[in-house]
């Protein structure tokens, strides 16, 4: 039932859909791919030698190289100013770019204007499928690499990814350039197959077609775009077989399917197929002898955090005011205070997620606010969040592997070449992650999706993920929330054992009993200011603390 051109269109449709998949895996919605494809197609068709002079395949290969280079370069130029945009704003900006390119091409002489350009037909079905196989292979090898996991982490929670030491801007730009390169490849293949390169072929509907193919097939599994393309290209064939020739049915069905997939099947058709779960290596966690943890922690007495007159205003609200704090190596500092006292704001400034409005901060030799969040993380700061910021659709083990981003080596390029060292490094990271899971008692949940864990387990998983980067300063924001007394006691023991390993710990906690038991020093905040600092005994007997604290939320705080 399939004609030769159906085979080619399936392959081309899948390649184009991969250019959407490339950014969707990182949670970006770009609609500029038709623009990349057209600019690459027209440039390659004008510059590449004629097949009559050099032969079909050499001519095509030269055109492909030109097209991919043009696509990549255009993506860099467009990506640099737009990568800060999120969600619908990036979609609108990239769509505007594609439209501008289309108008430009229509009005240029060298492109043949609205008539377009005729191009020799050299693409054979086997060529299209070989190229598709290479593209699919690329994404297959990307999926379980350190780079691939980082992109997924960005998609799931950008802020948490930053805090795990991932350079979000760099990763987003590289994904965008991959999209541009693939769209360029598609533009050239399209031109050298359909013979006529017309600006109208690269309008809004083309962008939607690519997006629908990627989303319907599934944007979280590497074979999704291929499935989507097979499915959508089959529609006209099935129509022809049953004698319904109406041309509107395919685009109508594509739109309808997109709607249904978004509503009822967010993982696309690919999610209907059974997925091989990763082989867990929890049993070998004990093999993490030293593992990836090699950081020399600051010695006792050495400065870890130094805050001088630090303040943060939100409009008229002084979330923090004139905070002075000196934390040294190996200390376990409790940060307590009533709701809204400014505890989270303070640790956000220390980890670089919030900028101070006054004063200075030095953390492990860097100045948060001036240094990027991922650089602060690389210096040895790791944290959990008050409201869980796990990578919801990744397994517990994968969450912790992302946490190990900073201490593991890049594996993607070596995975492409199938080098054994990449396999070794991935395994070492997995063993390290399994050891972190074991430390918080989550070994048996390694394969469970983060979103399916109980609240208490999610808190524990955040700690395991934070530990995976081998931090010198660990910030725990209400880690015992949702835990019972037994679990909170176990957590307290864990914190003490981490301190014995040389970690410095900042603990925000409403469970005052646990703070008293665990911390060597306690800092009390109220209305954004430090009202007391001292040992647990000193704090328990400080009248200002008793008044501020017990006066406000006795029942909760005494828990
Ligand atoms: N992004 C923001 N925009 C405006 N105001 C904010 C913002 N973040 C915090 N605040 C305000 O700053 C103050 C301190 O908030 P913060 O969350 O740091 O307190 P907290 O001690 O961590 O409280 P809780 O124990 O309830 O988490 C509060 O008045 C809060 O409303």
From TrEMBL:
In terms of domain of life, where is this protein from? Bacteria
Q: How does it sit in the membrane?
A: Multi-pass membrane protein
Q: What is its main location?
A: membrane
Stretches that traverse the bilayer: 6-24, 60-80, 87-105, 125-140, 173-193, 213-232, 252-273
MF annotations from Gene Ontology = ATP binding
Q: Which organism is it from?
A: Ornithinimicrobium faecis
| The protein, known as | Branched-chain amino acid ABC transporter ATP-binding protein/permease
Q: What is the lineage of its organism?
A: Bacteria, Bacillati, Actinomycetota, Actinomycetes, Micrococcales
Q: Which UniProt keywords apply?
A: ATP-binding, Cell membrane, Membrane, Nucleotide-binding, Transmembrane, Transmembrane helix, Transport
Family annotation (SUPFAM superfamilies): P-loop containing nucleoside triphosphate hydrolases
Domain ABC transporter residue range list: 305-552
Q: Please state where this protein is localized.
A: Cell membrane
The yes or no answer to whether the keyword Metal-binding is present is no
């Amino acid at each position: 039932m399939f004609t030769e051109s159906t085979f080619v269109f399936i392959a081309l449709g899948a390649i184009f859909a991969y250019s959407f998949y490339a950014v969707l895996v990182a949670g970006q919605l770009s609609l500029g791919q038709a623009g990349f494809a057209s600019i690459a197609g027209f440039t390659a068709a004008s510059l590449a030698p004629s097949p009559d002079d050099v032969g079909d395949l050499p001519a095509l290969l030269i055109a492909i190289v030109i097209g991919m280079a043009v696509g990549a370069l255009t993506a860099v130029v467009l990506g640099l100013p737009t990568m800060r945009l999120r969600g619908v704003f990036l979609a609108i900006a990239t769509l505007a770019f594609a439209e501008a390119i289309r108008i430009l091409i229509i009005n240029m002489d060298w492109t043949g204007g609205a008539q377009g350009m005729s191009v020799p037909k050299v693409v054979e079905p086997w060529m299209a499928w070989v190229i598709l196989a290479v593209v699919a292979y690329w994404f297959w090898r990307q999926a379980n690499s350190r780079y691939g996991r980082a992109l997924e982490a960005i998609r799931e929670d950008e802020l948490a990814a930053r805090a795990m030491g991932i350079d979000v801007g760099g990763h987003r730009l590289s994904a965008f350039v991959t999209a541009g390169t693939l769209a360029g490849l598609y533009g050239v293949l399209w031109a050298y197959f359909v013979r006529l390169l017309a600006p109208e072929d690269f309008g809004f509907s083309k962008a939607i077609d690519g997006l629908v193919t990627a989303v319907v097939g599934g944007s979280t599994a590497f074979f999704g775009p291929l499935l989507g393309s097979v499915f959508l290209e089959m529609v006209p064939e099935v129509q022809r077989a049953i004698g319904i020739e109406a041309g509107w049915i395919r685009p109508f069905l594509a739109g309808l399917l997109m709607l249904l997939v978004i509503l009822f099947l967010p993982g696309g058709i690919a999610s209907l197929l059974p997925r091989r779960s990763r082989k867990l290596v929890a049993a070998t966690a004990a093999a993490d002898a030293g593992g990836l943890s090699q950081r020399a922690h600051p010695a006792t007495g050495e400065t870890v955090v130094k805050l001088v007159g630090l303040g943060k205003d939100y409009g008229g609200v002084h979330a923090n005011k004139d905070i002075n704090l000196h934390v040294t190596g190996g200390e376990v500092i409790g940060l307590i205070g009533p709701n809204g006292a400014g505890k989270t704001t303070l640790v956000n400034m220390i980890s670089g997620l919030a900028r101070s409005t006054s004063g200075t901060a030095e953390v492990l030799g860097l100045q948060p606010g001036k240094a990027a969040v991922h650089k602060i993380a690389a210096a040895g700061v790791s944290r959990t969040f008050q409201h869980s910021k796990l990578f919801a659709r990744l397994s517990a083990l994968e969450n912790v592997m992302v946490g190990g981003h900073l201490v593991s080596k890049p594996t993607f390029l070596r995975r492409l070449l199938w080098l054994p060292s990449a396999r070794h490094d991935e395994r070492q990271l997995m063993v390290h992650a399994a050891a972190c899971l074991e430390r918080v008692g989550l070994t048996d949940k390694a394969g469970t999706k983060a979103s399916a864990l109980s609240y208490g387990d999610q808190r524990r998983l955040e700690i395991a993920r934070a530990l995976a980067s081998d931090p010198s300063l660990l910030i725990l924001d209400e880690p015992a929330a949702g835990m019972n007394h037994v679990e909170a006691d176990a957590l307290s023991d864990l914190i003490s054992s981490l301190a014995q390993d040389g970690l410095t710990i900042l603990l925000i906690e409403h469970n005052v009993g646990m703070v008293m038991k665990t911390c060597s020093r306690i800092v009390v905040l109220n209305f954004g200011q430090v009202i007391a600092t001292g040992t647990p005994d000193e704090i328990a007997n400080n009248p200002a603390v008793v008044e501020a604290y017990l006066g406000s939320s006795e029942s909760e705080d005494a828990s």
